[in-house]
Amino acid sequence: MRTKKLSIIFSLIIIVLLFFISVIVINILNIGKKEVKVARKFIEELSENSIIKENNDLEKEIIKEEILNKKSNRNSKIKYSVIVGKYAVDIDKDYNILGFSNKNINEVSLKSNEISEDDAIYLAKSYLVKITQEDFKFKEIRNQEGIDSSVYNVIFYKYREGYPYYYQEINTLINKNTGELEGYSNYPVTDVNYIDDINITEKEANNIIKENFKMLKLDIIITEEPILCYVNISDKEMVLAYVFNIGINSENNKDNCISLVRADTGEIINYNLEAVAIE
Fold first, then answer.
1. Is the pLDDT of residue 112 over 80?
2. Segments of the chain assigned E as strands
3. 1-10, 72-81, 243-252, 268-277: which has the highest mean pLDDT?
4. Domain presence at residue 43
5. Sign of the CA dihedral with 109 first, then 111, 113, and 115 last
6. Which of 77, 103, 129 finishes a domain?
7. What is the pLDDT of residue 271?
8. How much is the pLDDT for 217?
9. pLDDT value of residue 9
10. How many CB atoms lie within 10 A of CB 37?
11. What is the DSSP letter of 107?
């Protein structure tokens, strides 16, 4: 009787162990597929929302290319880059979408009937509303000098608590002919300590800038109204600072630089004077 009871207990233990081993094996096998599923779903949603051009062969292309073209990038936040049809989708270690791009973008031709910059900004905003729940605001259209590009590179500020990040941006590529979204990137800001104190007014920051350049014996013009932004003071720390666009008159030449004044202490934390000769 005791032997029979032990046999039953032993059998139950074996069954339980086999169950857990099966679960572990299934999870291991699925790890390599999760990023593919995430990328596939993202591209399908873009297509369904008319953000990218519909492709009747999309499912076929995904099945054909998803495994062969998967790659890992250890030198950035990108953990996986999965090819879905003609699109490369970048994913981080937590399976968040960091961005995507048309890998055939160099083949996109530029025609005479291109859309305007205002239209590109409008379209980029309408796409972002569907892609991200983050707050954003138009920053600029950034063009490379000397390059006749087939896309508008439309840049947006990311926001936190009503204040923009100055360097962390949302980047979109809008096809100049079709208005289609050809690329997008939006890297999350994580593990950062924020310094939110505002002890310096905009007027005080303005005076600090003027006094600083006066000490440097430089004639300046503040070309735009300053903006209060989050800027990095280290890899893991951000502070609110006033960002000034400065025009500098030097030896009959005009140069530009950015000056940043901390809103908590009034300290100037960064300025770019490489192009200016200081005696």
1. no
2. 80-84, 87-91, 97-102, 136-141, 151-160, 163-175, 181-186, 193-195, 219-222, 227-234, 237-250, 253-262, 268-271
3. 243-252
4. yes
5. positive
6. 103
7. 53
8. 84
9. 61
10. 13
11. G
- Using the predicted structure, report yes or no on whether residue 42 has a pLDDT greater than 90: yes
Question: Does one domain contain both 180 and 201?
Answer: no
Number of domains in the chain: 3
DSSP-derived secondary structure letter, 83: E
Report the SS3 class of residue 61.
Answer: helix
- The answer, yes or no, to whether residue 234 has pLDDT greater than 90, is no
Confirm whether 185 is domain-assigned. yes
**Lowest mean per-residue pLDDT among 12-26, 155-169, 178-192:** 12-26
Contacts of residue 252, defined as CB under 8 A and 6 or more positions apart, other chains included, come to none
The residue out of 190, 212, 247 marking a domain boundary is 190
Residue (of 235, 113, 127) closest to 183 by Cα position: 127
Residue 66's pLDDT is what?
47
Do 130 and 186 fall into the same domain? yes
Same domain, residue pair 9 and 86? yes
Q: Which two tokens stand for residue 200?
A: 């310096």
Write down the residue that tokens 């207990």 correspond to. Answer: 9
End-to-end CA distance of the chain: 101
As a whole number of angstroms, the distance between CA 72 and CA 75 comes to: 9
Report how far residue 36's alpha carbon sits from residue 58's, in angstroms, rounded to the nearest whole number. 14
Angle of helix 58-65 versus helix 2-48 axis, rounded to 10: 130
Which of 58-62, 76-80, 183-187, 264-268 shows the lowest per-residue confidence on average (mean pLDDT)?
Answer: 58-62
